[in-house]
Design a protein that fits this description.
By secondary structure, this protein is an alpha+beta fold. The protein has helices spanning about 40-50, 90-100, 105-120, 135-150, 165-185, 195-200, 220-225, 230-235, 260-265, and strands spanning about 5-15, 15-25, 30-35, 55-60, 65, 75-80, 155-160, 185-190, 205-210, 210-215, 240-245, 250-255, 255-260, 275-280, 285, 290-300, 305-310, 315-320, 330-335, 340-345. The structure holds adenosine-5'-triphosphate. Adenosine-5'-triphosphate binds near residues 14, 41, 43, 44 and 192. One of its GO terms (cellular component) is ATP-binding cassette (ABC) transporter complex, substrate-binding subunit-containing.
Length: about 350
């Protein structure tokens, strides 16, 4: 049985369709990421799962229960927001216990839960403090503690780390991951950050303009992006594109023949004509021969270097291990293997093969 099933969800606000038919199903204990650019509808979808917003059509099932029309409080869902929404006049312990108190959980049991959750999040020493006396990261922990105290059927997170500084964000990300490994509570997590999506998700739904462009594991999304948008959205530095045309049985750009793998070559006949030939920066190697180019920019990051070169087929970025000897203006050659190529039909924007 699936833990959460989203079936044909549509939502229209003032005659504009914001969600255009969303279908997603996840297994018990899975960590689902909803990722996409601002305005793609991910928060709206999360609000519907939470019961804060009603879909125009479609159903949401939590386990066997159809929760589409159920009030938020009866759904057995806990939500952690971007703004921590802690009660300013209550201390940390009271904030964590609040939901339990509302549901008339006896006092000794509440105290035991607060102690368990505080130990899990390592905030035992903060229990007497008010939210104003906490740092951003500590407040975020308390907000998570409040959700954890309820042991809900489903956790929802709406960009919980976006108000934290870069270092804390990385720490809290790891903490959320560990917490999920320990509790295995089914989770839906909204973010626009591709690194959060890749590192946290068991499965990722990449959204754009109210639709799911691809739903899959991080590995599937990265190694076999279904659309041009997904290929561009996930991966840093961004994938390189070469605009290519069909030439006989093969593919060419600016008179240069471009290598294809067998699967792509076989599928090429179904393509209208224009293609986008995608190469991830790590697929490009500096070599003694290959595509000639001139170095435009060099960005060392420490463990690797991004080398950007102007070539007859456009500007390409290579991601090479360690340091490079090349300097701006030097002549270089770039190589790649056909297995590394991501090929898309420029017309449909969909993957070929
Ligand atoms: N209550 C509402 N009334 C009208 N339009 C709305 C309402 N809520 C959301 N929208 C619109 O729906 C679209 C999707 O919004 P949503 O907040 O779901 O996007 P998002 O992907 O979460 O973006 P962000 O990352 O910026 O939060 C936006 O164009 C937004 O303006």
């Amino acid at each position: 049985m699936q833990a959460l099933k989203i079936e044909g969800i549509r939502k229209t606000f003032h005659q504009t369709e914001i969600l255009k038919g969303i279908d997603i199903a996840i297994e018990p204990g899975e960590f689902l990421i909803l990722v996409g650019p601002s305005g793609c509808g991910k928060s709206t979808l999360l609000s519907m799962i939470a019961g804060l917003e009603q879909p125009s059509s479609g159903r949401i099932l939590l386990g066997e229960r159809d929760i589409t029309a159920l009030p938020s409080k009866d759904r057995d869902i806990a939500m952690v927001f971007q703004s921590y929404a802690l009660y300013p006049n209550m201390n940390v312990a009271q904030n964590i216990a609040f939901g339990l108190e509302m549901r008339k959980v006896p006092k000794p049991e509440r105290a035991a839960t607060v102690a368990r959750v505080a130990a899990m999040l390592q905030i035992e020493h903060l229990l007497e403090r008010r939210p104003a006396q906490l740092s951003g990261g500590q407040r975020q922990r308390v907000a998570m503690g409040r959700a954890l105290a309820r042991a809900p059927q489903l956790f929802l997170f709406d960009e919980p780390l976006s108000n934290l500084d870069a270092k804390l964000r990385v720490e809290m990300r790891a903490e959320i991951k560990l917490l999920h490994q320990r509790t295995r509570t089914t989770t839906v997590y909204v973010t626009h950050d591709q690194v959060e999506a890749m590192t946290l998700g068991d499965r990722i739904a990449v959204m754009k303009d109210g639709q799911v462009q691809q739903f899959g594991t991080p590995h599937e999304i990265y190694t076999r992006p279904a659309t041009v948008f997904v290929a561009e959205f996930i991966g840093s530095p961004q994938i390189n594109w070469i605009a290519a045309q069909r030439q006989g049985a093969g593919l060419a750009a600016h008179g240069l023949e471009l290598g294809l793998n067998g699967e792509q070559a076989a599928a090429l006949s179904a393509v209208g004509g224009e293609c986008l030939y995608g190469l991830r920066p790590e697929a490009l190697q500096l070599a003694g021969e290959g595509l000639p180019g001139r170095v435009h920019m060099i960005e060392p990051t420490g463990p690797e270097t991004y080398l950007c070169a102007d070539t007859p087929v456009g500007r390409l970025t290579a991601r090479v291990p360690g340091e490079v000897r090349e300097r701006v203006g030097d002549a270089v050659h770039l190589r790649w293997v056909p297995e590394a190529v991501h090929l898309f039909d420029a017309g449909t924007q969909r993957r070929v093969a």
